[in-house]
Amino acid sequence: MKVLVIGNGGREDALCRTIAKSSKVKELFCLPGNGGTAKFAVNVAKNPLDVDEVCAFVAEKAIDLTVIGPEGPLAVGLSDALRAQGCKVFAPSKAAAEIESSKELAKKIMLKYNIPTADYQAFSKADEAKAYIKDRSCPIVIKADGLAAGKGVIVAETKEQANAAISDMLENKAFGIAGSRVVIEEFLAGEEVSILAFIDGEKIVPMVSAQDHKRIFDGDKGPNTGGMGAYSPAPVYTQEIAARVEKEILQPIAKALVAEGRYYQGVIYAGLMITADGPKVVEFNARFGDPEAQAVLPRLDSDLVDIMQAVLDGTLQEQDIKWNEDASVCVVMVSGGYPGSYEKGKLISGTRLAEEEGAVVYHAGTDLRYGEYFTAGGRVLGVCALGKTIAEAVEAAYKAVEKIEFDGQYYRKDIAYRALNR
Ligand code: AMP
Ligand code: GLY
């Protein structure tokens, strides 16, 4: 088979490595890819948001299966265009992916189908939004309706912060068109967990659990990022919670999407808060999480390409998907300044030494030039290790991180702290 992975983050490096292990794959491409994917795939220097260009490449190379990693290409209709030319695509349609690209739509669907989530209201006018929060309590959550790379959510501790966030999004257009409408949400207290699931219409099969670390600083302080680290499994996700999530959230959302004419194939990501009243949805994403994929995929013992094909062939439920019992931890190393502005082009050293420690170093924002890796983005590397316990995996991951160096590097020192503190 010839397989194409779309994207250039750590998630896509993890997808490429996992797909490359399949005996069915004869050729693997990554568009555009990064310094890490170049080891397992042929990088294709094209724009993943240019639908015509990608479609032409897929036709020219006679690609058998296209796997779309990030949300951007979904939102511009890449999966629909590829399907229209008869290609197999492991990713939801644009209409199905709106569960991520419009937070308001996601909220409406959850309300209509009784899927537990925070109370909300949506606004386009700043004065109306500010009037609404006057008699709400803090903290309160202000979200840009559209796609904002995980950065469009402000958890406001005070009304002043909430008003400032509303002004920023609706008046100053801090997130451009993505923030021209805001969703204002009740704050949910609890511990978060990410559940990724394979889905084909009403059939939905969850993967092992993971927990992300969205804030930039230790102890979950500072602004939200795309994700600073992840681990799997998340102990907060007990069997009892898992059973509730399947019954109250996963099966209902799969059914709801079919009923709404948004038939969904691929991976759906449920970001959940485990509250005192049970699990509630914080968000849905239309893809693997990043860095959750880097923590979850190393625990998959089955062939990922078989599962993807089963999703597309309507046989997902006949697949016996096997996961190993290891714990997995992924520490993300970022460029100094991220999630704000940062410099690129810094030489990265030590990735080989880190891998000799037994870790897997997933590349996110890197370039390979003259045999050396250079930083090329905010999130640079995801250093992942397995262990018999989370504590073992944490120790191994940080031992490997210490081997790596680049100018201005930053990483959180407390990945998996919630699991370790239990
Ligand atoms: P989202 O992009 O919607 O996942 O939001 C990013 C992060 O903001 C989440 O992972 C949570 O940590 C936090 N967050 C979002 N919505 C809420 C909420 N209603 N209550 C508490 N925290 C939230
Ligand atoms: N790690 C959060 C996300 O992928 O959206």
Would you mind describing this structure in some detail?
By secondary structure, the protein is of the alpha+beta class. The protein has helices spanning 10-20, 51-61, 71-75, 78-84, 94-101, 103-112, 126-134, 159-171, 239-259, 292-296, 304-313, 351-356, 390-401, 417-420; strands at residues 2-7, 27-32, 42-43, 65-68, 89-90, 120-123, 140-144, 153-156, 182-186, 191-200, 203-206, 211-212, 215-217, 221-224, 229-232, 265-275, 278-285, 327-335, 347-348, 360-363, 366-369, 372-375, 379-387, 409-410. The protein has 14 helices and 24 strands. Strands 12, 15, 18, 20, 23 and 24 form a 6-stranded antiparallel beta sheet that branches. A 5-stranded parallel beta sheet has the order 3-2-1-4-5, sandwiched between helices. It has a 4-stranded antiparallel beta sheet with strand order 6-9-7-8, with helices on both faces. The chain is globular and about 60 Å long. It starts with a strand and ends with a helix. The mean pLDDT is 95.
Quick overview:
This protein has 422 residues and is α+β, with helices and mostly antiparallel strands. 31% of the residues lie in helices and 28% in strands.
Bound heterogens, unique: adenosine monophosphate, glycine
What's the CATH class label of the largest domain? Alpha Beta
Strand content: 25-35%
Q: How confident overall, as mean pLDDT?
A: 95
Distance between the termini: 45 Å
CATH superfamily of the largest domain: ATP-grasp fold, B domain
User: From the coordinates shown, what is the CATH architecture of the largest domain?
Assistant: 2-Layer Sandwich
Largest sheet: 6 strands, antiparallel
Structural class: alpha+beta
What is the 3D form? globular
The number of helical runs is: 14
Which regions contain 5 or more consecutive residues with pLDDT less than 50?
none
* Share of residues in helices: 25-40%
Alpha carbon gyration radius: 20 Å
Using DSSP, what is the number of strands? 24
CATH topology term of the largest domain: D-amino Acid Aminotransferase, Chain A, domain 1
Integer count of domains: 4
